[in-house]
Amino acid sequence: MKIAYARVGSTMYDRDGQLLKIANFTPHPNYDEKTLDYNFAIIYFEDNAEIMFGDSVKPIQLATYDDSPLPDGSMLTISGWGIISVKYFIVFANSNI
Fold this sequence. Notes:
The structure is a single chain. Helix content is about 0%, strand content about 35%. The protein is mainly β and about 100 residues long. The strands form 2 sheets. Strands 1-2-3 form a 3-stranded antiparallel β-sheet, with no helix packed on it. It has a two-stranded antiparallel ribbon with strand order 4-5.
């Protein structure tokens, strides 16, 4: 695997925030490179990586297997960013859906 880093705490790919060395990653098994469906992966950082939490970097609570399903029409908040196609770049920051 090539040496790769993740930038956290910045909306810019080339500055600000923290660079953390990636030890490994697991892409979604149904990821489709052409359609970008299931564009999600779990990233494992090096053992000595220390994320500095602050205004722009905060932990989130993930759902557990025991959590009840949400009723239809529930208001949700999403956060993140990524490429949705070669021509378009999208940033979600606390968007309500």
